[in-house]
């Protein structure tokens, strides 16, 4: 991944060396997460990974992190293929089988999409901020607007997928940088319920 980011001029060799040193100290963190924490914009990282088709698959992340066995991954993938056009997310199937819990799924999603996990436990959602996404769209896709600044839009998602992320990027204002964060469904749902109940503007 480091070579990809160097090739796209997203990071310098010095930054890469520094990130690799940090990775040695912070075992369990992916290089992409560390580079993100160093301040490289999320959209640049994701664009580079997608361009070079170098994004790690969720199943591979779980096997690599020794959370599931390769045989369990094969079993879940076979079950997913049975769904045809209406495939269930792999993480959901693994949870149904009891191979992973929700926290492990969220952490794998975070590594796959290079998103930071955020807690919404004490977050106060704003109807005014949420308007940029739209109530129906936000409810359907479980999105909460965290911040809407002059040049930055921060969104929390509970179950991102490539199609949703690209759709949001396509329809958002071109002048804004979009930052995505992962939050648990159990924290996003109450925020959306509060927003639906709030009749003020």
Task: Walk me through the structure.
Strands 1-4-3-2 form a 4-stranded mixed β-sheet. The mean pLDDT is 82. Helices cover 54% and strands 10% of the residues. α5 packs across α8 (102-113). With 201 residues, the protein is of the alpha/beta class. The chain contains 12 helices and 4 strands, in the order ααααααααβααββαβα. The chain has helices spanning 2-7, 13-25, 31-37, 42-51, 58-64, 70-82, 90-96, 102-113, 127-130, 135-141, 162-171, 185-197; strands at residues 116-117, 143-148, 152-157, 177-182. The protein folds into 3 domains: 2-54; 58-113, no CATH class; 117-197, GMP Synthetase, Chain A, domain 3.
What's a concise summary of this model?
The protein has 201 residues and is of the alpha/beta class.
Q: What's the pLDDT, averaged over the residues?
A: 82
The strand line-up of the biggest sheet is 1-4-3-2
Rg, Å, rounded = 18 Å
Please estimate the helix content: 40-55%
How big a fraction of the residues is strand?
Answer: 5-15%
How would you sum up the global shape?
A: globular
């Amino acid at each position: 991944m480091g070579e990809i980011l160097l090739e796209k001029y997203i990071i310098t060799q010095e930054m890469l060396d520094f990130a690799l040193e940090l990775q040695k100290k912070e075992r369990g963190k992916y290089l992409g997460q560390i580079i993100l924490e160093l301040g490289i914009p999320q959209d640049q990282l994701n664009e580079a990974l997608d361009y070079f088709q170098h994004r790690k698959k969720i199943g591979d992340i779980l096997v690599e992190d020794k959370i599931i066995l390769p045989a369990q991954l094969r079993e879940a993938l076979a079950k997913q293929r049975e769904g045809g056009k209406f495939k269930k997310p792999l993480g959901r199937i693994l949870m149904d089988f009891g191979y992973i819990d929700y926290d492990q799924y969220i952490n794998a999603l975070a590594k796959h999409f290079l998103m930071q996990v955020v807690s919404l436990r004490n977050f106060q959602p704003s109807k005014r901020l949420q308007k940029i996404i739209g109530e129906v769209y936000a409810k359907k896709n479980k999105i909460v607007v965290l911040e809407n600044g002059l040049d930055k839009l921060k969104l929390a998602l509970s179950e991102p997928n490539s199609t949703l992320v690209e759709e949001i990027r396509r329809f958002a204002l071109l002048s804004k940088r979009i930052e995505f964060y992962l939050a648990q469904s159990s924290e996003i749902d109450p925020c959306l319920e509060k927003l639906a109940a709030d009749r003020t503007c």
